[in-house]
Amino acid sequence: MDHDERRRSITAAAWRLIAARGIDAANMRDIATEAGYTNGALSHYFAGKDEILRTSYEHISEATDRRITEALGDATGLDALRILCREVMPINEEQLLEARIAASLWPRAMYDEQMAATNRRTMDHWREQMAIFLEQAREEGSVGDIDVSIVVEQLLNMMMGMQILGVLTPGETSSERQLEMLEQFVAAL
């Protein structure tokens, strides 16, 4: 196993701990145990817990963006917009796990400049993609005369809310309910 693979396995161990027991459970000793290493061995791959958490946060963004890219294919307009939203919304086990981890890390991202920068890059990228898809939909005649920047913010806020509520109140914010909300929102455009 090479250096990068070991870093990924340590990050995955941190993910499992955060998802199962919250961020406070992700101490270096428990991360090392979960990853199958000694506590001291982690220092060869990460400078400390903060670096592991930053890497975990970056990994969530990268994983979501990879899924979006793969799922989009040649889709455009509202079809592409729906795909992007569905890949961000916690509507399956993998996405719910990512939402649980992201929600645990958001408080740190408010004060950690590196994590805040990761969050800004991700949100800016999604805003840009959504705006492109909405402009395509407008050109195709699929939407009315909308303020694209406002609609993008509404969608982004809805998806982030779904991540929080999907984790905290999964019964009320089920996958089916999330998909219904998305479809009603898109239909109103």
TrEMBL record:
In terms of Gene3D superfamilies, this protein maps to: Tetracycline Repressor, domain 2
Residue ranges of DNA binding: 27-46
PANTHER family noted in UniProt: HTH-TYPE TRANSCRIPTIONAL REGULATOR BETI, HTH-TYPE TRANSCRIPTIONAL REGULATOR RUTR
> Record keywords: Signal included?
no
Which Pfam families does its entry note? TetR_C_6, TetR_N
The UniProt entry, under InterPro entries, shows: BetI_C, Homeodomain-like_sf, HTH-type_TetR-like_transc_reg, HTH_TetR, Tet_transcr_reg_TetR-rel_C_sf
Q: Please list the residue ranges annotated as the HTH tetR-type domain.
A: 4-64
Instruction: Name the keywords, alphabetized.
Output: DNA-binding, Repressor, Transcription, Transcription regulation
What transmembrane ranges does the database entry give?
Answer: none
Its name, as the record gives it, is: TetR/AcrR family transcriptional regulator
Does Calcium count among this protein's keywords? no
